[in-house]
Design goal:
Number of strands of chain B: 10
CATH architecture of the largest domain in chain B: 3-layer Sandwich
Helix content of chain A: 55-70%
Helix content of chain B: 10-25%
Strand order of the largest sheet of chain A: 1-2
CATH architecture of chain A: Up-down Bundle
CATH superfamily of chain A: Cytochrome Bc1 Complex, Chain C
Radius of gyration of chain A: 23 Å
Number of domains of chain B: 2
Largest sheet of chain B: 4 strands, antiparallel
Distance between the termini of chain A: 64 Å
Oligomer: heterodimer
Distance between the termini of chain B: 67 Å
Largest interface: A-B, 9 and 7 residues
CATH class of the largest domain in chain B: Mainly Beta
């Protein structure tokens, strides 16, 4: 359109817009053999954006007060037009975010994308994993149902096993000895402001590192192009002769997001309470713990681990060590080989680890 | 069809699908955000006569706005909108002077709502009311 061109010209004079578009969009080249797993990052970004939007909409009607929280959520579900849709998108979306995040982490593990020179990307991603778990945990308390109240009690209790500072730490987290109105206040602030902003900042860092260092080529599939021409800007790893991000890979990402949305809406409209046990529908009763209180599915493995070890501290320490190992993986695994079938030790450990996690999760569900 | 025709057709169809999708997102969003009618203060408001003493006034919510019932010195009841016709502040009943004063810009109304002084351009709106069995019903 003529109008478009006029605006583009106006901006070109002031911002050098065409040069920016050339570098960041049409000139940002990616290897030809990128596979579908690479879309998971964009899907996560989309999910995060959706969570922020639905979260802000929920803020309009939700009341973060222990006496009124449950009632306000019921009002959103039953009286506010399409409130049920916004709320279910937010609740289902949070579970989807953790699920897709785990798949993203798996794909990075199996394609060896965490290896040098991408250690910082892995570390920022690891921190993001913890932040997403934290935002889910804090969000869980907000409806102030029996499930919210008691799952939070169990989750915050586990921190108490840390020697010396454990007790103080639990009280600090809860804003008191037990979960109560004070907990709601601080969890609300964390969930709505602190953690999402931190996630946004870290995602920015994660994407910056991705572009600066260069995306990692998959170790299988088509051969990367052999064109050797390189430009003058800094790139640790470039992909000259590759395919532009815009519009090619952007369209691929949009396709993947559309597929995700199909799956997402399938759950939202046909089985929205997939992740809701019956305790989620009862208002919190601080004097009555329900019989089979359990955390969300992504915490079941942690929960079961704590139950296995007679000493809670040992259970916590074991998990701490496992997480630390995961965080430091790029420094432990220094081999250059990225193809999973050519890394037997890695394959054995990771498949074993995944099966262990799955087994603990299933055991946690039934125990 | 030529190549260009096929492309145009597909792009138009895609545009149509995206427009429908946008509508499917924007309509619930609009309904969610639009203010709802509160069922309680909708039509009529009732209260016992005794709540309005001689020379006194009672303020209440009605139809999303504020109304007032005044019992004048001679015993007559008047039901008015309490929203000042100048810029929308709620007028106050002045017991000593038996009139209404708007605190925002000192608009003054008689007990019947007629403008005495100040910036209000119109008198206070009258509200329909009835009295039966010691109960006043406004609206």
């Amino acid at each position: 359109m003529v109008l478009f061109k006029k605006i583009a010209d106006w901006l070109e004079v002031r911002l050098g817009l065409r040069d920016l578009v050339d570098r960041e969009l049409t000139g940002y080249l990616l290897p030809r053999n990128i596979n579908a797993w690479y879309s998971l990052g964009s899907i996560l970004l989309f999910i995060f954006a959706l969570q922020v939007v639905t979260g802000i909409l929920l803020l309009i009607y939700y009341v973060p007060d222990a006496d009124r929280a449950f009632r306000s959520v019921t009002t959103i579900m039953n009286e506010v037009p399409f409130g049920w849709l916004i709320r279910m998108c937010h609740a289902v979306g949070s579970n989807m975010m953790v699920l897709i995040l785990l798949f993203h982490m798996l794909s990075v593990l199996f394609m060896g994308s965490y290896k040098s020179p991408r250690e910082m990307n892995w570390l920022s991603g690891f921190i993001l994993l913890n932040l997403v778990m934290a935002v889910s945990l804090t969000g869980y308390l907000l409806p102030w149902s029996q499930l919210s109240f008691w799952a939070t009690t169990v989750a915050t209790n586990s921190v108490g096993t840390i020697p010396v500072v454990g007790g103080r730490l639990v009280e600090f987290l809860r804003g008191g000895t037990l979960v109560g109105p004070a907990t709601l206040g601080r969890f609300f602030a964390l969930h709505v402001a602190v953690i999402p902003l931190t996630i946004a900042a870290l995602v920015g860092l994660h994407l910056f590192l991705l572009e600066r260092i260069g995306v990692s080529t998959p170790p299988f599939g088509m051969d990367d192009t052999r064109n050797a021409w390189r430009g003058e800007r800094f790139e640790y790893e470039g992909h000259p002769g590759g395919i532009p991000f815009f519009p090619n890979y952007l369209l691929q990402d949009l396709t993947s997001i559309a597929i995700y949305l199909a799956f997402f809406f399938l759950v939202v409209f046909f089985d929205p309470y997939l992740f809701f046990p019956k305790d989620a529908f009862l208002p919190a009763n601080p004097f009555q713990t329900p019989a089979h209180i359990k955390p969300e599915w992504y915490f079941l493995a942690n929960y079961q681990t704590l139950k296995i070890f007679p000493s809670e501290f040992v259970g916590l320490a074991v998990q701490g060590m496992a997480m630390t190992f995961l965080a430091l993986l790029p420094f432990v695994d220094r081999g250059k080989e990225k193809h999973p079938l050519k890394r037997p030790l890695f394959l054995a450990c990771s498949v074993g680890g995944i099966l262990l996690w799955l087994g603990l999760t299933i055991w946690g569900h039934y125990s | 069809m030529e190549q260009v025709g096929r492309r145009k057709f597909l792009m138009t169809s895609l545009g149509g699908v995206l427009a429908v999708a946008a509508g499917a997102v924007l309509y619930p969003l609009y309904r969610y955000l639009a203010p709802r009618r509160n069922i309680d203060s909708l039509g009529k408001v009732s209260f016992p006569e005794t709540e309005v003493p001689a020379g006194g006034a009672k303020f209440f919510d009605i139809g999303g706005a504020t109304g007032v019932v005044v019992r004048k010195a001679n015993g007559d009841l008047v039901a008015l909108s309490a929203v000042c016709t100048h810029l929308g502040c709620i007028v106050q009943w002045q017991k000593e002077r038996q009139d209404f004063l708007c605190p925002c810009h000192a608009g003054r109304y008689t007990a019947d709502g007629a403008v005495v002084s100040g910036p209000p351009p119109k008198p206070l709106g009258k509200l329909p009311f009835s009295v039966a069995n010691g109960t006043i019903t406004v609206g």
